[in-house]
TrEMBL record:
Keywords: ATP-binding, Nucleotide-binding, Phosphoprotein. The modification 4-aspartylphosphate is found at D53. Gene3D superfamilies: 1.10.8.60, 3.40.50.2300, P-loop containing nucleotide triphosphate hydrolases. CDD domains: AAA. PANTHER family: TRANSCRIPTIONAL REGULATORY PROTEIN. This is Sigma 54-interacting transcriptional regulator. Pfam families: Sigma54_activat (PF00158). InterPro entries: AAA+_ATPase, CheY-like_superfamily, P-loop_NTPase, Sig_transdc_resp-reg_receiver, Sigma_54_int, Sigma_54_int_dom_ATP-bd_2. Residues 166-434 form the Sigma-54 factor interaction domain. Residues 3-155 form the Response regulatory domain.
Length: 568
């Protein structure tokens, strides 16, 4: 049951609320700022909403501000000064609440026509401003509407935060979510388009499948990684003896996904022959495993994803038009890339940053950091606050740590190109947090007091612009020019050639990791395992050895193996 704190010098609103809203729990009221501060401390983390009166008929000593000298020194009648303070006391209290509870929803109530005060309340981010009419029924109804509206919105927020896919609040994304919800429940196939890393697989698995209300499983096949000659067997299954090597019968994914959802990623890679077979599945629910004499039936919800323009493939004769038409192209949904989501970039950043604070590796570092600074170690379900901007959150709940993104860090991230979209974004934020925590744990002397906004605030984890640019730089401009093929002599001492084997359809991410892995291994050998020297070369920082080591771990490089190789 949500808990509501009423801050008022009289009991009439409390009685009204208790009578008309038995579904909510109203905490003992606070009559002035001192009692408010005590109540917020006593019920830390349990107050869902505050109802705050504006006018307080209380003794002079209880009035805010504590120091009234500057107001009295301006001259004028002291009685009038105190009267003015009484008439707007609620806003002084709100100002104080905002210092320690920037996000707590507050409804300001008044029985007077105080328009100028409404503007102040808005500036102090009051959720609502209510004029009461001294009519119990009407007043209770107005308050109930506002309270229920705010609490429902909070619940939606909490629910949205626990969704694995971040939709954001832009009209375009809300529209997209609605549309996908409708398509999920229908029987027709769904086409999801979008560049790499825009979340096509995630949407199919976590959004469409659960909403399709089908009892069967979700089965995904990435057609870009499946060799052509294995594709038919994988999709349709094989009967024993169908070809040499088919030593036993095997079910295909069409059988496994029956009753559920089949997700075909990179549908553009499906060969023309198999396209014909898939068409039969869509038309009649029928298919024939390789080597079988009889057709089998399946019942799947088909979701396909593509990075390519299927209509253009149809025009070029590479995709069957009849299959394309069956895939329901009129309702194809395109997931926008990160660059197209400038409007909600800040919320995206906060959401993904919160998510990476939950990764096991970062959790361990956070625990080390907390232990070092005598902070309570965050539990597995504790969510860290993430703040973008210059304002340092007030010291409040001691259990909280704050990840702060300096405005310049924000700008660097916002202006970056993000060709790998959310996949690249999430990895980068995870690295940013890891590198920042490693610096804080191992080399706190590198953090300047001004980075923390307030010296000695151990609960602040600042993401500094230099850490961001260090990480983005290698992804921005190629620092090495590709060697023209044969006509350059490889001088073993200074130049090296990296070679990677690419499978068709390899993702950008896999390619860049392969290159990075080789380069790091090469440099490790050149530096004879001196990670400090590598830090100097790669990040212009001889103290960044642990960062390099972490990155090598993340890329799956076994340092022990390299060391043994070096020793040999
Ligand atoms: N809107 C989003 N909210 C949360 N996470 C997202 C979102 N979009 C992408 N991701 C993250 O990005 C990663 C890549 O997502 P996913 O694999 O679904 O992309 P994709 O479009 O299918 O990429 P590809 O075309 O390369 O297969 C996922 O691990 C997911 O965590």
């Amino acid at each position: 049951m949500p808990s509501i704190l009423i801050i008022d010098d009289e009991d009439n609103y409390l009685e009204l609320c208790r009578r008309y809203m038995p579904e909510h729990s109203f905490l003992p009221p606070a009559r002035n700022y001192r009692e408010t501060a005590a109540a917020l401390r006593r019920y830390a983390g349990q107050v869902d909403l505050v109802l705050l009166d504006v006018h307080f008929d209380i003794p002079d000593v209880e009035l805010l501000p504590h120091d009234k000298q500057p107001l009295l020194a301006r001259g004028g009648d002291p009685a009038k000064v105190f009267e003015r303070l009484r008439r707007s006391q609620g806003l002084y209290i709100l100002d104080q609440i905002r210092q320690s509870h920037p996000d707590l929803p507050v409804i300001v109530m008044t029985s007077r026509d105080d328009l100028p005060l409404e503007a102040d309340a808005e500036r102090l981010r009051a959720e609502d401003y209510t004029y009461l009419l001294a009519d119990d029924y009407l007043d209770a109804r107005a308050l109930k509407l506002q309270i229920d509206g705010i609490l429902a919105q909070r619940e939606r927020h909490v629910a949205a935060a626990s969704e694995p896919f971040y939709w954001g609040n832009s009209a375009a994304m809300i529209g997209l979510r609605r549309r996908l919800g409708i398509l999920a429940r229908g029987r027709l196939p769904v086409i999801i388009q979008g560049a790499t890393g825009t979340g096509k697989s995630l949407v199919a698995r976590e959004f469409i499948h659960p909403r399709s209300e089908r009892a069967g499983p979700f089965v995904a096949v990435d057609l870009s990684t499946l060799p052509n000659d294995l594709m038919a067997a994988h999709l349709f299954g094989v009967v024993k003896g169908a070809y040499t090597g088919a030593t036993s019968s095997r079910e295909g994914v069409l059988a496994r996904a029956s009753g559920g959802t089949l997700f075909l990623d990179e549908i553009g890679n499906l060969g023309l022959e198999l396209q014909k077979s898939l068409l039969l599945v869509l038309q009649e629910g029928a298919y024939r495993p390789i080597g079988a004499t009889k057709e089998l039936q399946t019942d799947i919800k088909l979701v396909v994803a593509t990075n390519e323009n299927l209509a253009a493939m149809v025009r070029a004769g590479r995709f069957r038009e009849d299959l394309y038409m069956r895939l329901n192209p009129a309702t194809a949904v395109t997931l926008p890339g990160l660059r197209e989501r400038r409007d909600d970039f800040q919320e995206l950043l906060e959401w993904f940053m919160r998510r990476v604070t939950g990764e096991a590796y970062n959790r361990d570092l956070l625990a080390q950091y907390a232990e070092q600074r005598d902070l309570p170690i965050p539990g597995p379900s504790d969510v860290l606050t993430v703040t973008v901007g210059r304002s340092i959150p007030p010291r409040g709940d001691a259990r909280r740590m704050h990840v702060i993104l300096h405005p310049s860090s924000f700008k660097l991230l916002q202006e970056f190109d993000w060709p790998g979209n959310f996949r690249q974004f999430e990895m980068t934020l995870s690295n940013l947090l890891t590198f920042t925590l490693v610096d804080l744990v191992d080399r706190p002397e590198r953090i300047e007091p001004e980075d923390l906004g307030e010296a000695g605030r151990p609960d602040i984890i600042p993401i500094l612009p230099r850490t961001v640019s260090d990480l983005l730089r290698p992804m921005t401009a190629p620092s090495v020019t590709e060697a023209p093929d044969d006509d350059i002599a490889i001088d073993g001492a200074d130049l090296a050639r990296l070679a990677i084997v690419l499978r068709p359809g390899e993702s950008l991410n896999a390619v860049s990791c392969a290159v990075e892995r080789q380069y790091l291994e090469h440099l490790y050998e050149r530096c004879v395992g001196d990670l400090g020297k590598m830090g100097e070369i790669l990040l212009n920082d001889a103290g960044a050895g642990r960062k390099i080591q972490l990155r090598m771990n993340q890329l799956g490089i076994k340092l022990r193996r390299l060391k043994r190789r070096g020793d040999a």
